[in-house]
Amino acid sequence: MGRLIRLSPLALLAFSASAAPLRGKSSEFIWASTKALIAFGDSYTYVQGTRGYVNSTFIGSQLDISYTPQELLTDLIVQNQTGTAEGGPNWIEYLTRCGLKPGYTSPLTCEPQLWDFAFGGADISVDFTPLHHNWTVSLENQVKQFISYGNPVLENFLDKKKTLIAIWIGINDIGDSAKYAVNFPTFYNTLQNHLFSLVSSLYSLGYPNFLFFNLPPLNRRPGLIDSANPLPNATMIDYGILDEPAKYGFVNTTNYCAAYNQPDILTDPEEYGCLPQDEYFWFNSGHMTSHVHKILAGALEEFLEKNSRR
Ligand SMILES: *[C@@H]1O[C@H](CO)[C@@H](O)[C@H](O)[C@H]1NC(C)=O
Ligand SMILES: *[C@@H]1O[C@H](CO)[C@@H](O)[C@H](O)[C@H]1NC(C)=O
Ligand SMILES: *[C@@H]1O[C@H](CO)[C@@H](O)[C@H](O)[C@H]1NC(C)=O
Ligand SMILES: *[C@@H]1O[C@H](CO)[C@@H](O)[C@H](O)[C@H]1NC(C)=O
Ligand SMILES: *[C@@H]1O[C@H](CO)[C@@H](O)[C@H](O)[C@H]1NC(C)=O
Fold it and tell me: Which residues of the chain have pLDDT under 50?
């Protein structure tokens, strides 16, 4: 399977990452000449689109899964307080610099372009965990939706070899299955196998470059794909941003501002007894702040440059 790049967000917090081809021969990957990112996942990655379901996605929903080429190509990324789940730009917007400015951005005007099909609240598949809402598009359905409606449009003008597919999924699966009475290593293995069958169907469309974020600490993750190189290990995970917050400008890493969703929270945090949002690590109970996403994106960009190869 071509060249696969994968890394853990925890590894990024430690400013280190691992990359390895999964199997077979490597193909070229050059970050500097990457023309587009196509993303799948959950609220960590979704961006609001003018044709998206509110607080959930760039385009469509499970209640309205299809879209026309015209609808896709005229959809705009929204940047405002509710445009992401972070109260500001998220990692993929920082990485692509697409949709960073307040207001509306057409992905077509960006380089690299950002085509983001992640859906807030998504799990991998209803085979394992129920949908959060009847409008939620699971990762499985994001991929099916892309195969039916997205790819036939985008492949007309995107160079697949210069496109990176990014997948960050799993936080909802972990949370939603926490109370299950199952053998977790076996259960997570099943989930990962399912995930990789979805990746295979994207790969067979002709996209050779993939970026994966892994959720749990890689060293403790069951069913390591690359057990010969289980990085980051426990030591590396231990020295992240959370241990050196001041270095990155974070003042409060233990809690979040309860008024995070107030319309004037960015301009008047004192009114709510809060620090400026950028000084918090956590945006709310499940999400990191936009500032953390900015740091992640910076580290990720370095990683992608270092791992560029002909
Ligand atoms: C979207 O999110 C904002 C901020 O959390 C919330 O105030 C609003 O009610 C949400 N809208 C819908 C339709 O869920
Ligand atoms: C952000 O923009 C979207 C789309 O224009 C709009 O529906 C939403 O209410 C806006 N949110 C805020 C906080 O202004
Ligand atoms: C989806 O769920 C909402 C709220 O739970 C409900 O009001 C609506 O009727 C449902 N729609 C469909 C098509 O099932
Ligand atoms: C993890 O890797 C680092 C860097 O190679 C090494 O210094 C450290 O001893 C390792 N820790 C464990 C627990 O293997
Ligand atoms: C962190 O922020 C929360 C919410 O603003 C506050 O309640 C808490 O006291 C702060 N913790 C520290 C250690 O400053």
Answer: 1-25, 216-239
> Ligand 5 center to residue 279 CA distance, Å?
11
User: 270 burial class (0-12, 13-18, 19+ CB within 10 angstroms)?
Assistant: exposed
Give the closest ligand to the alpha carbon of residue 80. 2
Closest CA to 46 of 158, 174, 155, 135: 135
pLDDT digits (tens, 9 = 90+) for 50-108: 999 999 999 999 999 999 999 999 999 999 999 999 999 999 999 999 999 999 999 99
**Res 247: pLDDT:** 86
Contact 293, 90 (CB under 8 A): yes
**What ligand has the least distance to the C-alpha of 277?**
5
Q: What are phi and psi of 145, to 5 degrees?
A: -60, -40
- DSSP, collapsed to helix, strand or coil, labels residue 163 as strand
Give residue 150 CA to ligand 3 midpoint distance, Å.
Answer: 25
pLDDT given for residue 7 in this prediction: 43
Residue 134 Cα to ligand 3 midpoint, Å, equals 6
Closest residue CA from atom 14 of ligand 5 = 252
CA-wise closest residue to 115 among 36, 4, 42, 30: 36
Find the DSSP H helices in 67-115: 69-74, 91-96
Give the residue, by CA position, lying nearest to ligand 4 atom 8. Answer: 235
Q: Is the CB of 261 under 6 A from ligand 1?
A: yes
Q: Write down the domain spans for the chain.
A: 2-241
Q: Which of 16, 235, 239 to mutate to test the pocket of ligand 4 (most atoms within 8 A of CB)?
A: 235
Query: Among residues 224, 229, 255, 240, which one has the least CA distance to residue 299?
Result: 240
Cis peptide before 185 (omega within 30 of 0): no
The residue to which tokens 């990324």 are assigned: 77
Q: Is 41 helix (H, G, I), strand (E, B) or coil?
A: strand
Please give all residues whose beta carbon lies within 6 A of any atom in ligand 4, as ranges.
233-236
99 vs 79: CA distance, rounded Å: 6
Dihedral of CA atoms 2, 165, 12, 118 in degrees, nearest 10, equals -150
